[in-house]
Amino acid sequence: MLSVNRFEPQPQDRLFNSEAFFRLHAPECAFYFQWMLKGRVAMCLHVSEVATAQVRSPRRGTFGAVSFFEDVALPELEAFLLEVTRFLQQQGIRRLELLLPPAAHADERVAEQHFVLRSLGFSETLCDVNYAISVDERPLSQRLNYANRKRLNKCVRDGFSAGPMDASSLAEVYELIQRNRQSKGYPMTMTLPQLSEMQTLFPAQVLLYGCHAGDTLAAAALCLQVSPAVLYVFYWGDDAQFSGYSPVTLLADAIYSDCQHKGVALLDIGTASEEGQANQGLIRFKRGLGCEASLKFRLEKILEP
């Protein structure tokens, strides 16, 4: 049975599909769908209007689509998606876009969603390449390429230190990352007040890391615990005065070590493409950190009146 905007109690889910994240970013036209089986929520999906008669899952966040809370068979997934599309058609929605998690997020049953969506007439309108590190017992230094091992050793030799930062450091972290992104021509997709609100709503899931040269912040990262198994590097960057050290390498080592300590299975460092076009510099950088590639799809369906 389909439940719409009733927010039935459900297990804790990945950040981008949680009720709180949906409410934080939902415009006036937005729907939170849940699929009830035997009196419990088995799946959820939310969509928000991004243009006239066009909705997307999610409006904000890097991926959405369906979350599972039970061992759902494919016919149930198909039934859920059919009911969602029928409901949206009745609301006058004509275009539905779903951003799937990267394929490396295997626990989210990405392949099954992709298959069912294609069988229901959805088509791929975007394919990006995503990079992540599977966390195991090895230190990150064993996975770095030669150049990054040299950078890591140089930072350690010259007394740099890296690790988690307190939540009160958000403004300092944001300022450094903003300077770094502006120097490369990249915008900040969220403002400091927006991130501060997220930090208040999700104190255990908005995590800050820093690399220091003495008392000076040389590099910083803002990460999101998108699920118990996945930590996602949302933003990171370094101060230009430390470009000769590449302190992001030591920062990555600290984040990876924290994942090992917490039992996080995957450190997701994000895409290295924009609207399907490869950023070769980013690809080299992420591969040099020991990342492996997986595909990340956007699927779309035109809903007939």
From TrEMBL:
Q: Which domain of life is it from?
A: Bacteria
The BioF2-like acetyltransferase domain covers 149-274
Output the Gene3D superfamilies linked to this UniProt entry.
Answer: 3.40.630.30
Q: What is this protein called?
A: BioF2-like acetyltransferase domain-containing protein
Organism field: Pseudomonas abyssi
